[in-house]
Amino acid sequence: MSFSFEGDFKTRPKVSLGGASKKEEKASLLHRTQEERRKREDERRRLKNAIVIQSYIRGYHDRKQQYAIQRGNFDRCVCQTQSEGGPPMSDAASLSLLTRQLLFFYRQSEDSRRLVRTNIFWNFYGQLHPTCFSIFPRLLQTCKDDSLNVAVPMRMLEIFSSERTYLPVLEDMNCVASLIEQILHYMVQKGYYRSLYILVNHKLPSSLEYSDAPYGAHAIPLASTLLEHTLKPLNFTYSSCTTGARQFVFAAFTEEFTSAPFTEQIFHFFIPALSDPRLHFPFEAFLCSLQATIVSSAAALKRAPWLFYFVLSVGETCLGSLSEEGLQLYLRALQALLPLLPVSESTSRPEVISDSEDEEDTNTQAPSTQDDSYRISVQLITEECVHKLDTKQQTNALLNLVWRDSASEEVFTMMASICHTLMVQHRMMVPKVRLLYSLAFNARFLRHLWHLIQSMTTKMITGSMVPLLQVISRGSPMSLEDSNRIIPLFYLFSSLFSHSLISVHDSEFFGYPMEGHGHSNTTMMPFTLSELVNLSQLLRDACLGIIKLAYPETKTEHREEYMAAFRSVGVKTNTEVQQRIQAEQKRWVQLFKVITNLVKMVKARDIRRPFCPAGHWLSEEVNIRADKVTQLYVPSARHVWRTRRMGRIGPLQSTLDVGMEPPQLSVSEERHLAILTELPFVVPFEERVKIFQRLIYADKRDVQGDGPLLDGIIVTIRRNYIYEDAYDKLSPENEPDLKKRVRVHLLNAHGLDEAGIDGGGIFREFLNELLKSGFNPNQGFFKTTNEGLLYPSPTAQMLVGDSFARHYYFLGRILGKALYENMLVELPFASFFLSKLLGTSADVDIHHLASLDPEMYRNLLFLKSYEDDVEDLGLNFTIVNNDLGEAQVVELKPGGKDIPVSTANRIAYIHLVADYRLNKQIRPHCLAFRQGLANVVNLEWLRMFDQQEIQVLISGAHVPICLDDLKTFTNYSGGYTATHPVITIFWEVVESFTDEEKRKLLKFVTSCSRPPLLGFKELYPAFCIHNGGNDLERLPTASTCMNLLKLPEFCDQHLMRNKLLYAIESSAGFELS
Length: 1073
Prior knowledge:
Elements: H1 26-83, H2 92-105, H3 108-125, H4 135-141, H5 151-160, H6 163-170, H7 173-189, H8 192-203, H9 221-231, H10 245-258, H11 264-274, H12 283-293, H13 298-318, H14 324-337, H15 378-389, H16 392-403, H17 409-424, H18 434-440, H19 443-455, E1 457-459, E2 465-467, H20 468-474, H21 480-503, H22 506-509, H23 529-550, H24 560-568, H25 575-608, H26 635-643, H27 667-678, H28 685-704, E3 713-718, H29 722-729, E4 742-747, H30 761-774, E5 782-784, E6 790-792, H31 796-800, H32 804-820, H33 831-838, H34 849-852, H35 854-864, E7 878-883, E8 886-891, H36 906-918, H37 923-934, H38 939-942, H39 947-955, H40 963-968, E9 971-973, H41 981-991, H42 995-1006, E10 1024-1027, E11 1037-1039, E12 1044-1047, H43 1053-1066
Parallel strand pairs: 3-4, 9-10, 10-12
Antiparallel strand pairs: 1-2, 5-6, 7-8, 11-12
Helix pairs in contact: 1-2, 2-3, 4-8, 6-7, 8-9, 8-10, 10-12, 12-14, 13-14, 13-15, 14-17, 16-18, 17-21, 18-21, 19-21, 20-23, 21-25, 23-25, 30-32, 32-37, 33-39, 35-36, 41-43, 42-43
EC number: 2.3.2.26
Enzyme class: transferase
Active site: 1041
């Protein structure tokens, strides 16, 4: 046996090569590490919390021990003084030490007697030391506990703030006032009003209300005392204190008392009490200090409703005592606070306001002393503010301020800013607000406002002064200061003038003398017609300038790296700047809307009775041409046309449906689109017609394509039942898309096929006859005015039953098809009906009544200006319909037959009568017709034209026929040429015709007496003269479906003239080829 010893005297442990060497998974390792880290963090937190708790407990015990020590020292000192039997303590140093001790340990529940003893010492000493000043807010703050008695601290406050306390000692009223000022100022610095706020809400019952009795005679003495102490600091000048002391006192009163959420006690007692003129609240001084207090911040937004309500409440009773400067301060306060007022209930929720501040005393608490359920809601305060602002007294005070001759630009600007905020931010309508309504019908105010707008200037880089209106018209960017000056004024003027124009009938507008008995010649028009011409031009240019601002030539883009670099050095970028830009742009868009509305109203008057020179509405700054290459005709851009609406311009508008690619429009194309949708009348009519036809052509190309001629809709129509068959075959159920090609197969009276294949001519003839039949008054769907103009018949429902709306929808589609096919039809419509089709609303105003019933319009104008007793006329709120020989009395409002028309309500009666005749009676008819029209033609495209221009678009222009143009675009067939002797004689004869005879010839051949809008080159098929044979006994005949004249070979000029006149006068020879 052999042994081998290698020097190892210890047995080595055996190492297992199995599981022990297995590596721990990464996720498990990370989890274990995180868990260990969390445990260490929890341990550190527990240790820290233990230290804090122990520190607090030790501090609490130490404070309690020190309180006991100092309370014992205080008692020993007082006992020593009393045991000596001498006079009370009279050493100032000892008294100060005693007072500091009291301030240190004072608790009202334990130390009230010690406080009284200290008060006795100070009274005996006869002088005060600043050390005792700070005791008063401390005492008031302790009164928040309902179980504590406030008599002692309130008595202390009354004594130390009373002149009677110091006057016997100081014997100088000025010194006494100075001393009290210093006391009150020091107390306000230490939270005097915040403590009063707490005391009021905890010690006064919530049911307490302010009565009309003198404030000293209230049932609760504490209420009168608190009211007196609230007013006392406000009635001193603080001349002996540091500069700004009085401002500080008013600021503290504003922020800690009137801007905090109102409780029932504040709302029902303190606000009415401070509004009582007998208490002489220093309202003007308060307004003066308020200017420095109001700032636009989150805190200001929270406290604005309460402060605004307080200002309005006191203003209701104190406006009469304010000086002119005070009234301007009041106006400035309204201007600053109104934008901070919440707008709607969704945004007007009660806010918890914390007034906690860092105080020397750690026991000071914020005035959030009651549950929110005891507070007046923000929504209620907001509604009360709006109501108070609209009271008669408030309105009269504000109106007197702007109506006086000495009113400055600043006053007008502030008033405009207030009204602008009411209309834009709070969305209040002019008729609903007494202030706005009164201003709208004051011609002098509107004139002054417009002259002020015109006189506003700004200094350019070159140093020259340029009118702000000119800057707007150029589309130049404007500084925020300048825009704040002019936008409210411009918005207010446009809104008020627009509203006043609604009530100004044409006789007043044009300055015609009133006719009839007892009429007043006063007018509400602030401008003459010549002034309106210049004003409308400036307004038009301003609108065009705002469009330029909405679509600037260049758009600045910055990369994110640059934005980060700017933010790193404190430069505001991206979000802040973008929000500010969008807010400013929104103001311009709102201004654009009201100015455009005013321009359109003036333009409507000019359409009814022209007073502007020819070409007045056209702008040299606009160069829109239909033949220019543009993206406006691509499908997505045509969809933008469909979704444009009044006043919605610029990037703020979302115009496309989800899934549709937005058109890539250039800046100029965006501007052109905005002009054509909002201010189309600045573009010449001919160019707009070309644009309309290009839009139709582009749409037709997408719908009809380039397929075979026979593709599309094919219908068979009986000639004797054109309307009935078309109504059935072309209904929306059978043919939902009427934009497709329509081919017509006609049957004669015997039911046999008529010869010919429809290549477009037969359809046009069919469409022409269909429109004549459908709009024929004998059909029952349309009536005519005294001037022979068509409008929907109110009795249609009585004729065809509930399906009447389907007939109007059908007729609208057919008229749309005529426009879509560029076909002229002689259908003279009433202007009010065309206005209803074009407007964004289906209703029109009273000014259109003259085109429907001139006699009723004159009677209503007579009633409006009747100066005698209106009730003598025996009218009530009813109207009589005489439909189909049956009289029916209709009430204009519920119970109208029992409501007599009087001087007070005659304006409402006039508008209700006009609304019934123009709108209510035929509303379903017009809506159905408009829907049918829109089914074929985009109404936005038609809105490029006014009602007169639409009539021209439908029927053609009533202009002399240009024979040279007709000759140029006339074709010849059957052996005729332009130089043929018969053709030469024909043109010589036609040239000798009167204009009326030329129209009859054109109607004879084309079925329309008016030439195409853009000349005979647009006539399709082209005007053609065909050889009608050599039988001289025959009359000329025409195939209107092909615009074809069949002219026999008349070689004698006299014979040619007689035959042509006979044919066109008798309308002989109408046939289909």
